[in-house]
Write a structure and sequence with these properties.
Blueprint (H helix, E strand, L loop, with lengths): L1 H20 L5 E9 L21 E7 L30 E5 L9 E7 L8 E12 L10 E9 L5 E8 L12 E10 L4 E12 L12 E13 L3 H21 L1
Antiparallel strand pairs: 1-8, 2-4, 3-10, 4-9, 5-8, 5-9, 5-10, 6-7, 6-9
Length: 254
């Protein structure tokens, strides 16, 4: 038993040492973007893991939301329906949190449960994105975003990928211009989270700014999450072993 554990530790160390050789590097890249021509400028995905139309989404649950439509109508499913919505302020938009007393209630949490019936090992999460949009730069606070992404796994402890803030309030603006933002987070190498069976997005009240600071809220239009089915461990080790042999063969030739 001791020898088995020792061999496992040696194998784990060998695998870790081979990752840089094979070009596997850890990286989390966050790209915040702002457009000042349209509130629906950025294209969203209808084929990502958590889209309503995809079999990779098993179910979802949420708490703390405030729909941004007249009369309080609306559903949280507009956030993962593959559409950024319309240019209307009353259709296809969603408000999750607000610093004022007249709009949202402070926070919004949504959990997307992934389908592990077919992909029993879970999913490798490689990127995710949030999209916002509003009608006027006078309320550009409404396209700021502050959210944290966490996960659970088929096997192993839950964890948090990180907290991300896109504050597009600063910079020149033109009264009446439409604005939208996109916050893209890309994971690569050893930062790709494997074996995931659920993702949770926890939205908070975004930063206050100089533009109408008393009305701090976020008009969320869509949430995307991308990845692939996790390869079962024995197969993953076999592929890694093949790649290792290839790398060693190249070294010998050199």
């Amino acid at each position: 038993m001791v020898r088995t554990v020792k061999h496992a530790a040696i194998l784990a160390g060998a695998v870790a040492s081979l990752l840089p050789v094979l070009g596997v590097q850890a990286a989390i890249v966050t790209t915040p973007s702002l457009d000042k021509t349209s509130m629906t400028y950025f294209a969203v995905s209808s084929t990502d893991l958590i889209d309503q139309s995809q079999t990779t989404l098993a179910s979802q649950s949420d708490s703390g939301y405030t729909p941004f439509t007249p009369g309080g109508a609306g559903a949280t499913t507009v956030l993962n329906d593959g559409s950024v919505g319309t240019t209307s302020m009353s259709t296809g938009t969603f408000e999750y949190g607000d610093g004022s007393s007249t709009h949202g209630d402070g926070a919004y949490i949504v959990t997307y449960n992934l389908n592990t019936t077919v992909n029993t090992a879970g999913y490798d999460i490689t990127s995710f994105a949030t999209y916002t949009g509003w009608v006027s730069s006078d309320d550009r606070n409404r396209v700021g975003v502050d959210f944290t992404v966490s996960y659970t796994k088929v096997v192993g402890a839950p964890g948090t990928i990180g907290n991300y803030v896109n504050d597009p309030i600063s910079g020149p603006s033109t009264t009446g211009e439409n604005v939208s933002s996109k916050t893209l987070v890309e994971l690569s190498g050893t930062d790709v989270v494997t074996g995931v069976n659920s993702l949770t997005f926890s939205f908070a009240v975004p930063p206050k700014g100089s533009l109408n600071p008393q009305d701090v809220t976020s008009i969320i239009r869509e949430v995307d999450a991308f990845g692939t089915a996790t390869v079962p461990e024995p197969m993953a080790l076999s592929l890694l072993g093949l790649a290792s042999l290839t790398a060693l063969a190249r070294r010998r030739k050199a």
